[in-house]
Amino acid sequence: AGRKEDACGLLDLAEYAKNRPWWRKVFAPSSGSSAEKYNVATQLVIGGVTGWCTGFIFQKVGKLAATAVGGGFFLLQV
Question: Which GO terms describe its biological process (predicted)?
Fold first, then answer.
């Protein structure tokens, strides 16, 4: 008749916590990196869509900023 701890196994939480990365402690074990969650094709699609959206937004903001700076310079000349 062994002790109950021998039959069930004993987990040392201090050792377990030392071996886990800090982001796993903060965000829970289910939140791994995207490389662990998604396959390569999905990562390429997500990266492409977010890159296109970022480029589109920066294009619109850049045109607006250039127009504002050029218009301000024009008004200073007048």
Answer: autophagy of mitochondrion
Q: Residue 74 corresponds to which tokens in the numbers above?
A: 């024009």
Task: Say whether both 46 and 68 belong to one domain.
Answer: yes
Residue whose token pair is 């007048």: 78
**Rounded to whole angstroms, how far apart are CA atoms 17 and 24?**
10
> Do residue 45 and residue 57 come from a single domain?
yes
- My answer on whether 44 and 70 are in the same domain is yes
CA distances from residue 12 to 8, 9, 29, 52 in whole angstroms, order as listed = 13, 10, 18, 48
CB 19 within 8 A of CB 11: no
Contact 42, 49 (CB under 8 A): no
Please check the confidence at residue 4 and state whether its pLDDT lies above 60: no
Confidence (pTM): 0.48
- Per-residue pLDDT, averaged over 40-63, amounts to 94
